[in-house]
Amino acid sequence: MTDLSFTEEQRDCLQELINVAMGLASDKLARFLNTFVHLQVPAIGLVNAAEIPEQFRGQYQGLNSSMISLGFFGDGGLRGETILLYQLENAGKIAALLGYDDDATSEAEMLTDISSILTTTFLNGLAEQLDNSFSYAAPRVISSRDNDFISKLEQTAFHWQLALKVDIRYELTDYSFDCNMILLIPGEAVLKLKTILDNVLADF
Amino acid sequence: MALTALICDDSLLARNQMKKSLPAAFDAEIVTATNGLEALAVLRRQEIGVVFLDLTMPELDGVGVLEAIKAEKMDVFVIVVSADIQPEMQKRVMDLGALAFIQKPVNTDKLSAVMRQYGLI
């Protein structure tokens, strides 16, 4: 079986590229929300995609979460799907701040907008550093205000081999919201990614 | 005696990128630190001319390092090299005494210009 695991150097390289991409995304988010985002070192984990639902079960069991998915396609077979998972406790406050109406439809719309800002800015930043360019599928709300999102996550993760799990906590000046971003990448794209990372590393 | 420069970043890739981005004309010995606490330990132990400082780091972040440098009145140039490009963050580090803010990944022309401006090359 082909080895999909990353060396420590590849992991460090990917983490730094993600930091830079996150910086761009947070800057965009801060401008959109007209506030300041406290950036923290993201916790990055590379795991078997099949383990993801179980990990989230422990973290989110019984909580209301929204899950929004965005597929991306790059050159040379690099592709995957990002899932943003939100805790909804502060969603109403953020929606009010941004002037969305106070109803469930508007909340979903707001989360789609925020997801779009976060993921496309993040992925564009990542693609640029990988000397690649991504195109995107339309964002898809997998579940909203749903206690049973774990099983839906399970169905989505089932199609993928590797999951790059990036835990991001966006702390805004007046409130915070928790957001997990998961990058799901199929096996052959993982091999492609490893080759690209090796090329980046060879340059330094 | 040649200048000693400190590169402080938690990422090995970023430290290597920074080393490689330094202008050839920059005559300095390079030491490294992988977080803010390590950076402060180096700064208290030996004379450092310039620090290339990342912001988002474990243990102690770059803002914490700048605050300590200010509080302890250390005589050192700090050039912030960060991915956290929010205008408010840039203002915060400049207010804390950083000479310049350079966005990651480092643009070598911008770095050279800043270093020339402050007589480092």
Structure description:
The complex is a heterodimer of chains A (204) and B (121). Chain A is an alpha+beta fold and 204 residues long. Chain A has helices at residues 8-33, 52-60, 91-98, 104-129, 149-157, 187-202; strands at 37-38, 43-48, 65-73, 79-87, 135-136, 140-146, 162-172, 176-185. In chain A, strands 1, 2, 3, 4, 5, 6, 7 and 8 form an 8-stranded antiparallel beta sheet that branches. In chain A, strand 7 (162-172) and strand 8 (176-185) form a beta hairpin. The longest helix of chain A is centred in the N-terminal third of the chain and has 26 residues, at 8-33. The radius of gyration of chain A is 17 Å and the shape is globular. The two termini of chain A are 30 Å apart. With 121 residues, chain B is of the alpha/beta class. Chain B has one domain (3-25, 35-117): Rossmann fold. In chain B, 40% of the residues lie in helices and 21% in strands. Chain B contains 5 helices and 5 strands, in the order βαβαβαβαβα. Chain B has a 5-stranded parallel beta sheet with strand order 2-1-3-4-5, with helices on both faces. Chain B is globular. The two termini of chain B are 15 Å apart. The relative contact order of chain B is 0.18. The model of chain B has no long low-confidence stretch (mean pLDDT 96). The chains are: A alpha+beta (204), B alpha/beta (121).
